[in-house]
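#struct-pred
JK: can someone run the complex with NAP? inputs below
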Amino acid sequence: MNASHAYLSHLFSLDGRTAVVTGGSSGIGRAVAGALARAGASVVVVARGPEQLGDTVDELTADGCRAAWVSGDLGTREGVRAAAEEAAAVFGEPDILVNSAGINLRPPLGELGEDVWDATMAVNLEAPFLLGQRFGPGMAERGFGRIIHITSQQAHRAFVDSGAYGVSKGALESLARSQAEAWSPYGVTCNTLVPGFVLTALNRRLQSDPERVAALAARTLIGRNGLAEDFAGAAVFLASGASAYVTGQSIPVDGGFSVH
Ligand SMILES: NC(=O)c1ccc[n+]([C@@H]2O[C@H](COP(=O)([O-])OP(=O)(O)OC[C@H]3O[C@@H](n4cnc5c(N)ncnc54)[C@H](OP(=O)(O)O)[C@@H]3O)[C@@H](O)[C@H]2O)c1
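RT: done, structure tokens with the ligand placed:
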């Protein structure tokens, strides 16, 4: 290994690490799972649909990565608990937890019923909380851990019917700070990545309106909307030793969407 490779590997390699990535079968989660796996981690992707999960794992194993999938519904507490145990049984207790599974139901607030509120909070906020409770203390005991949440612009500002979704994401950033307070002294950093508008299945309906898509792109400084792959580098950074002194932070990966 030449000197620069050795240096980069010292900073960013995830060799020997284990990771659990929720929502790892699609969009941002899939790109993050791929990035962690290609950087050396053994990765378990968790979501509901077996087909996309299998497809993700097949792609990674074909690339020589160590990956596996667990099908579970993170919309119920029992589902979260079962998925956590199954995921930890594959490659062992995770060193890295990425919470990317999320839903965005967009009724106008006046029409937003308790069902939408409950479903949103369950997947977007309670599942990350419960997974943190399950894995955080073990990470702290072992002296290394990385918890990475995926939040949203709507944690910071209201637009396109933020409704319950924005509330769940705002709370998720607060959860990251609480987790950072609890576990950072023991080598467990907890941060969030804050996307702008990223072209994924989550907003397929919105993508059918080219004018809105173009307007969102124009709100960035880079001049385009996000791609799932834009999260690879930031995720590897936050999962690696290189970010040991970064905790409790919300880091935008948004093409400059949030700064003007
Ligand atoms: N795309 C954007 O513009 C954007 C912007 C800001 C924030 N985000 C956030 O980024 C994260 C990833 O979004 P994305 O755009 O990558 O979305 P996506 O392509 O729709 O992926 C969502 C993932 O979550 C899983 N999921 C949803 N409900 C679940 C449940 N009840 N139990 C288990 N898994 C579940 C999905 O798989 P199954 O359906 O098979 O379960 C899928 O793997 C989300 O937290 C989202 O809020 C996205």
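RT: quick notes.
Residues 3-199+228-252 form a domain with the Rossmann fold fold (CATH 3.40.50.720).
The longest strand covers residues 188-195.
JK: thanks, will look after standup
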